[in-house]
Amino acid sequence: MQDDALQAAEAWLAQGHGVALASVLSTWGSAPRQTGSMLAIRDDGAFAGSVSNGCVEGAVIETGLAVIADGKLRSLEFGVDDGTAWSVGLTCGGRISILVERLDHPADIKTLNAARAASEPLVRVVDLESGKTQLIDPYTDVSPLAGAALIAARSNLSQVAEVDGRRCFFAVFNPRVDLVVVGAVHIAQALAKMAEMMGFCVRVLDPRPAFVTAERFPGVALYTDYADAVFSHSPLQRHSAVVVLAHDPKIDDPALIAALRSNAFYIGALGSQKTQAARRQRLTAEGFSQAEIDRIHGPVGLSIGSRSPAEIAVSILAEIVKTLRQA
């Protein structure tokens, strides 16, 4: 929904329209959209994106038109009790707080969309009193707002925070998680399918052509090469997670070596404690320190007693999300 709203906003601004942007500031209970969800509103009432399941859009659009007219920042709050929740789409008594602002700086929206297209992280900060906005690279910026922006970016959650007495909204625009699965085994099939449902960008690597087929991995980017060769032209990034499942050192080790030399936020490897110990010895021989090797989550996945490929995939994804949120 962020993409829809921002792309529409950029196009409308370029056409000379007045545009307002509504953003979900915070939610309570079972609200239909998460914090950071966006709705762009054009001066003729057209809109793109969503801040709810349609239950409050009408009121938000009306407010957006008023904001376009006078330029004044507005905050809205909607909430219902459990008895009427379902009728308007706010399940179980959910409540939602929404910021509505006029977009007065088209260049910022263009920059934001360009960064997203290039898979570069940005945080858009809105001062909730003055309405002033700022784009921040959370990993390089040194402004007073940088610390709070980095916290928001690392948690991958848009949020309201107070900095030096200023209450600000930090809207996070992180790239999609780049999940690289090495070893096209049964677990990989379940993992790829679930990860796509979570919005991850999934790549599956395996030098064995019989394993890497569109029938086994429909709609997934597939590579029949060793990981080091793939990463040489498609490098791992800060938003990459690498999961090694082949259980074959000839396939696994090049991937782990490349991952350890990258800034990927998550590295996981399948295998028993005995397998992990042998792997550590090989990586030590490659010159890695124990601290570097400790970046590897092995055995991969949270300990939930998983047995089937699907259960193991759940445990892996849970660990990836936990690592992402706690980075």
UniProtKB/TrEMBL annotation:
| InterPro entries in the cross-refs | MoCofactor_Util/Proc (IPR052698), NAD(P)-bd_dom_sf (IPR036291), XdhC_CoxI (IPR003777), XdhC_Rossmann_dom (IPR027051)
Q: Kindly provide the name given to this protein in its UniProt entry.
A: Xanthine dehydrogenase accessory factor
Residue ranges of the XdhC- CoxI domain?
12-78
**Cross-referenced Pfam families:** XdhC_C, XdhC_CoxI
What range(s) does the XdhC Rossmann domain occupy? Answer: 179-320
